Amino acid sequence: MNQRSTLIRVTKILAGIFLAAIVYVAIDFMVDLKPSTIHSSYRFTIDDIPYDQPQLLQQDNLSIVLIKRSGTVIKRLRQGTKSLQDVLSNQSRQPQFAQNALRSRHEEFFVGYANGTDLGCLVEQKTGSRLGEICGTAEYDFAGRALKSKNQFQNLGIPDYNFSDDFKTLTIRP
Q1: C-alpha span between 147 and 44 (Å, rounded)
Q2: Pick from 53, 71, 56: which is nearest to 129 by CA?
Q3: 92 vs 98: CA distance, rounded Å
Q4: Which residue has the higher pLDDT, 83 or 11?
Q5: Per-residue pLDDT tens over the stretch 109-127
Q6: CA triplet 136, 142, 145: central angle to 5 degrees?
Q7: Which of 127, 140, 160, 173 has the most CB atoms around its CB within 10 Å?
């Protein structure tokens, strides 16, 4: 009898733990408890941006790469698809408006998350019109598309964003 009562007691304890876990997950799912460092939107003031020079914008825990592309670079991005891993950006994280060859709302501007898709480190400008992860081997064109290499990488993520009418303010909604 002693073993039977011990088994019943252990079963009740495990059932209680399981029920508590289900309640915790349900509450966590129903209530969005964002950390105080995550905002509903971020605003960046943009002054004179040189053409074809990536700008890294950072606020709190958000890092964005902004590129003002010249006509020459835009033409090259539209034509040069042979060196891309995901030409049509089918496996990319991007809003509906960025599902085009330049992956942007306005063809002159590229806005993307500045974290690479190899090791998650920040990106920087490499030679020519390329971005590269500072601690990994992933490289991207100025539309954030991953270039072919021995490893498979995803394209840079594109946030939901808007520019003001005069392109002086960039609003990001992560």
Answers
A1: 29
A2: 53
A3: 10
A4: 11
A5: 999 999 988 888 999 999 8
A6: 60
A7: 140
Residue whose token pair is 């905002």: 39
- Widest distance between CA atoms in the chain: 85
Residue 131 has pLDDT above 70, yes or no: yes
Q: Whats the size of the chain, residue-wise?
A: 174
45-72 pLDDT per residue, tens: 998 889 999 999 999 889 999 999 999 9
pTM for the model stands at 0.74
Phi, psi dihedral angles at 103 (to 5 degrees): 55, 50
What is the C-alpha to C-alpha distance for residues 55 and 48, in angstroms, rounded to an integer?
11
Phi, psi of 85 (to 5 degrees): -80, -40
